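Action item from last week, closing it out:
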Amino acid sequence: CAACLVQAQELALVAALKQCPKELGAARWDEVSKLVPGKTKAQCFKRFKELKELHKAKKAGGGGGDDGDD
């Protein structure tokens, strides 16, 4: 299913971020994209920024809409 693929890619993104330290600088995103099937460096970076904003919003507001309980 499409949602399963997206979820798998997101899990791969999180795992790749843990594996590739910030100290790599710009090269970090090249490495991250290699570990996320079907996603480019730009797509990985964009999703990372979206997830970061969601996380910030949840911390600040104590919620934020999608809690995964559909």
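Closing note: The mean pLDDT is 87.
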